[in-house]
Amino acid sequence: MPGSLKGIERFFEGGGDGQALPVKLSALFSSYGYKKYRMSRFEEYSLYAQNFDFLAGSNVITFGGADGKLLALRPDVTLSIAKNTKASLERGEKLYYHESVYRQAHGNLGYEEIDQMGVEHIGRVDLLTIAEQVELILRSLRLLSDDYALDISHSGLVHGMVSELKLDQRAKAEVYDCIKKKSVHAFAELMKKEGVSDVSAAKVRRLIELSGPIDEALAELGTLISGEEAAEAYVQLTALSHEVGRMGEGGRLRLDFSVFNHLDYYNGVIFNGFIKEYPKAVIVGGQYDKLLQKLGKNAQALGFAVNLGAATSGHKRALDAAIVYDESDGVFEVLDAAQKLREKGKSVYVGTTPPQESALKTYVFREGELEEKK
């Protein structure tokens, strides 16, 4: 780490090995009126057992409390906030958090701790609310990487289009699975089994295939829309496309209906944010009014979460410099040389042997001067 205030500032301006990201995100969220929210690490297991589908299959780590109640290490933050919120349609709240969530590792071998930040807007959600949050997500992604994109979908549009097929609940669930997996073949087989004509199924089949920059995708999507629910969602997506274009970020927003969450909880827009440095979504979220209704709350809700561990994968800075010295070198001369590099915002290792981590530049100390080792 750099040793002076100016050196530290330069270090963090250069990425700071990802350490500055939570500070920057906190400042960004606060600038949009979100207030810091803190919560307990534990919740009663019953909250998660009753809403297991919302957790998208995450295993919950449980243990017995001193009072005999079954407790759980928190696998999700949104559920805890939704359970405890006092917000309503008449008086909303905007919260942000920086918390850890805990999930069983693959193969049930121990658990993993995931460092997470996010925002929740609970109260009344309208087009302005959604547009502002899309703007906030894009600005968050900009802090994570120079190369980023936001995939957006709308559960109302998908639900409306699928409802036009007049299927029972079991068959609808299979259609949703086809959309999520982008499986046109499985969808065609299902329609054949259910006796749905090719003409009736054609629009949903194209919905499965359709993805790309939102302006281009919306132009075709407009020819497929049928039903009031889907039409309302289309108007909303068109307005969001306009807002993102106004920001100069039109090329960052993509329409992809495989971005899909459980319809018992989600009812509107759904987000997946990506950066070049990580293969999976680093930001996930959407509108989840139905969860609030299920918890007996008279409010709507919209939010997203940032996986900080994944997000900082692009911020891991290599060690800038390593200074290797021996006993014949002057102690204070070596320290002064290291400090001069730190004043420039460099991270500097000093030792009698090279570090295990490779450095961008390695120096040896000769006759009171640094000499780069090639």
TrEMBL record:
Amino-acid biosynthesis listed as a keyword:
yes
GO biological process entries: histidyl-tRNA aminoacylation; L-histidine biosynthetic process
> What is the designated name of this protein?
ATP phosphoribosyltransferase regulatory subunit
UniProt keyword Amino-acid biosynthesis present: yes
| InterPro entries according to UniProt | aa-tRNA-synth_II/BPL/LPL, HisRS-like_core, HisRS/HisZ
Q: Name one GO cellular component term.
A: cytoplasm
Q: Which key words are in the record?
A: Amino-acid biosynthesis, Glycosyltransferase, Histidine biosynthesis, Transferase
Which residues belong to any copy of the Class II Histidinyl-tRNA synthetase (HisRS)-like catalytic core domain?
24-308
**What would be an example GO MF term here?**
catalytic activity, acting on a protein
